[in-house]
Amino acid sequence: MDLHLRALAPEDLDAALDADAAAFSNPVSPADREQVAATTDWSRMFGAFDGETLCGTAGAYVMELTVPGLEIVPTSGVTAVGVLPTHRRRGIVTELMRHQLADVVERGEPLAVLTASEATIYRRFGYGVACVSRKVEITRHRAAAAGAERVAGVGPDVALRMLSRDEAVGLAPAWFDAFRRGWPGQLSRPETWWPVVFGEKDTWKGGGEQFVVAADDRDGRPGGYATYRVKDVGESSDRRLEVREVVAADPAVAAALWRYLLEVDLVTSIVAEIGVDDPLRWRLADFRALRVVAEEDMLWARIVDPAGALAARRYEREAELVVEVLDPFWPDAAGRYVVAGGAGGAEAERTTRAADLVLDVADLGSLYLGGVSAAALAVAGRIEERSPGAVEVADGFFGSGSTRPCCTTHF
Predict the structure, then answer these.
(1) What mean pLDDT comes out for the span 317-338?
(2) Which CATH fold topology does 305-397 show?
(3) Is 122 among the catalytic positions?
(4) Catalytic member of 46, 49, 61, 122
């Protein structure tokens, strides 16, 4: 195999999409090609070639990640990682991931994130599960809201209206931006995505046959929106409302949107993907109306610059820890780091001091957003405690506050 890597360009679009279609066994339509052409950042798209054959790809979006303390961190959003079925098990993904990581380092981004098609691929490249999502199903006839007028000030002042696709493209980005800045784990979305999110083609970014209901800005309160579609289920008369997303920075607006979704007529069940700490169940008069049908990994994080990443977030308690990071895939990031800080700020740098904790860079990625406790990782054998009591300190130190991280952007 004559393997070489290079940056891709717009003229490589057809070859890249054909390779992606084969890798994921998902044929590409003309509409798909138009959307990918409009949303791809070609400066961050790389290809692996076997001679003249494009046999693998790896790309990224320029994103921002909200981290504990509601700080905003520049982040590489990894996407389009795949290899032709004819070229698997030859180390091509490894070469692409290493090449991409070098690019992330050169750009000065302290971390990279991705959503994984399989849960066994990316840990060896230093990625750890940082956010978990829950898929829930609600029985419609039991789903009355519980005193919604008393929840977060919800009342008649939160007026809802249906939006057209064009209106949604114009209004939703600002509402989403306010929303994603207020919840650890949320990511910014490139401007080129919004015509796809509300487009006619059904994709993992959104679009397709869907309705958009929104609350406009009012009295200094940011608005928000929800997208959904209703489908017939099987051969019966059952109809299922599928919530695509609910976006609202203001709790009153969020409650009003959910109340609307719970009361849509001619629906048997409602399904949604929500964060672990989403208060949806507590909005219901019947606690058992909602059941969790699945809990899955959502966002994976890869710490590229430990000192930069650790200094960028805020911490639940004032503390100082020396963390030894093991990173066999990218040895330049390995080493001991002292991180000190609290709610007001933090500092981190390399050190020669003895380590309090030792962990793999993938587990640091899991710990980073506060979505998993240090104690759980230690019990699982993923953190080694060198100083007595260090795990307990880390447990309080790395927390994410009152709400565990949540990511609602698929990429």
Answers:
(1) 98
(2) Nonspecific Lipid-transfer Protein; Chain A (3.30.1050)
(3) yes
(4) 122
